[in-house]
Amino acid sequence: MNSPLDLAHLRRSCSQCSLQQLCLPAGISGPELDRLDEIVRRRRPIARGERLFRIGDSLEAVYVARDGAFKTVTLSEDGDEQVLGFHLPGELIGLDALGGGAHRCEAVALGDANVCEVPFSQLTDVAAQVPGLQQQLLRVIGHSLNRDHDHMGMLVRRQANERIALFLHGLGERFRQIGQSSTQFKLPMSREDVARYLGLALETVSRGFTRLQEDGVIDVHGRRVEIVDIEELTRLAHGGEDEAPRTRRARSTP
Amino acid sequence: MNSPLDLAHLRRSCSQCSLQQLCLPAGISGPELDRLDEIVRRRRPIARGERLFRIGDSLEAVYVARDGAFKTVTLSEDGDEQVLGFHLPGELIGLDALGGGAHRCEAVALGDANVCEVPFSQLTDVAAQVPGLQQQLLRVIGHSLNRDHDHMGMLVRRQANERIALFLHGLGERFRQIGQSSTQFKLPMSREDVARYLGLALETVSRGFTRLQEDGVIDVHGRRVEIVDIEELTRLAHGGEDEAPRTRRARSTP
DNA sequence: CGTCGGGTTGAGGATCATCAAGTGATGTGG
DNA sequence: CCACATCACTTGATGATCCTCAACCCGACG
């Protein structure tokens, strides 16, 4: 019963997972959770750059990162990629195939990662029998929708700095939800990824970060980010003036 | 059995609805369809400007327009609205509350409309018992997700003209899906709505339309649009050069 | 006929994309 | 251990795009 194998399995089971309350098992327990647990496949570690699925692949499973982060991208006909979303641990990946049964985007690991894979047809089977799972599945899908809407909220903001502030603020919040610091984190993605996510040029993102640092709002070194003045960041994110109000700063005035 | 009341009901039932194959009933028939039909409420006509729900309202139902169109909007703290999406007949409205149980946006009728209202808890109940409905519900949600992704695809395009071309092209496709002409239609929304949807200034949208007309790609009079050169429109939508290449054209030459 | 809302058009200037060069970390091979 | 290559990022200069402000047009409607 308690063979090493079982222990290993238990250690990785949903009931032991720190993301339990954010993931599909939220609100489910006992034998019902076991039913879900049975169909979850824990895959070998994924290497940076590896893909969970590609455009056109038929919908086999949905995925959740246990750790590590992913981006989903589409490729425009002229070859360059658009970043549709970033996926932190606990956030469902692969829902883009729900509509047509085939994936419309690719999921790429931003760093080494571990994922759980849930065969989709089995998931819906179990969901039909476990009301709590059906509810939670819909809730998780809803969260994904909300993130897309937040993303649009960034894209529609005209000023590059607003988009960037919004991005950093939102990312912090998402880190908080998975139990990490919302003010000090390492960006899982490159500047280029951020740019393609925000609809900006790479250089504009870089300049935006620099500007926020100059204004004492954040502290950046490469991918390490610390949010120093969360209030000001929030203000900027919501269309506040560009100039810091208290911290008067001379801006290359001729 | 065939009292006028029954007839009236039948005429409006899902099984009689022209949108059946695009809507929740797709792939369902017989007694199972009846079960769905029973929980659907057909509401009195909705007037232009009326709202199906407001921000903060708890999730009571999802909605589908039988005719007419809606927009969903969020209000930024400084009061101006962002258009999250347009909803043509057959497209589910209200999914934004799936995640948190409360609506994050408002659904506003763009013109007079008729909607079906499906109480959400009953919908999930029936879906748990009718596998076909569960599948279709997920598929419809997936379509909504896809539209959001298409929307992002427009927002990320840098050039205003690309966004506008993409918008018109996509709208045409959606009209086609509901059995209307994809090349000749009346925009249900104002220029301002389009602008807030595309993240552009109202004037830029107006100029974009004019430009497309000058180039012989479309024919616009107010909200009436005819797509004259669908090929060229597609080309422009995907980042083709602004100037028409073959069809050399004198621009606004008297 | 006057007004009002929605739409178009024009002029000017700020923002951001583009091109281009420079920096700094990391890794590789001699 | 040091040159050297590579990659991610930063910084600078310039010009096009599109936002802003403003006027104007037009059709609807009282």
From TrEMBL, chains A, B:
Its main location: cytoplasm. Keywords: Activator, Allosteric enzyme, c-di-GMP, DNA-binding, Repressor, Transcription, Transcription regulation, Virulence. The keyword Phosphoprotein does not apply. Gene3D superfamilies: Jelly Rolls, Winged helix-like DNA-binding domain superfamily/Winged helix DNA-binding domain. It holds the Pfam family HTH_Crp_2. InterPro entries: cNMP-bd_dom (IPR000595), cNMP-bd_dom_sf (IPR018490), Env_Response_Regulators (IPR050397), HTH_CRP (IPR012318), RmlC-like_jellyroll (IPR014710), WH-like_DNA-bd_sf (IPR036388), WH_DNA-bd_sf (IPR036390). Residues 158-231 form the HTH crp-type domain. The keyword DNA repair does not apply. NCBIfam families: PRK11161.1 (NF008365). This is CRP-like protein Clp.
